[in-house]
From TrEMBL:
Transmembrane segments: 39-57, 64-85, 91-117
Membrane is among the record's keywords: yes
Keywords: Membrane, Transmembrane, Transmembrane helix
Name of the protein: Uncharacterized protein
Organism: Oligosphaera ethanolica
Amino acid sequence: MNYRTRTRSIRIRSSRTFCGQHLYDIAMGPDSEHNEMRGVARGFIAIGDIAVGFLALGGLARGVFALGGVSIGAFAFGGVSLGLLSLGGMAIGAVAIGGMAVGGVAIGGLAVGYYALGGNAVGKYVFSAAQRSDEAVAFFNRLLPGTK
């Protein structure tokens, strides 16, 4: 018996532009017309399988504000995130917060950074269950009031 699965595609794009970009672009699912296996959205607000924009939401998201499975941007939020401020399961950035965090300031279960706070922390100034440097305690008290 031959079973066929139907995949639904969504393509919605604003007619208006801002700085040469569409205000919003939504692209999800395959598009046989353009020979795309995944929807690629590009716009000021981009939502898609792959999203590129100022605000990007998608499986792979790149933008100033990026939210997705894999996110890259100034402010990145997602499963794997890379950015200046990065929050995610695995976060890499100047300030990284996540299960595994790597950055200048790293906060997480496994934290690796110049200033590191976490269950297992490695860095120049460390605040963890096993080790507490005075500089790290002072820094994280300023950053997170009430930290002892």
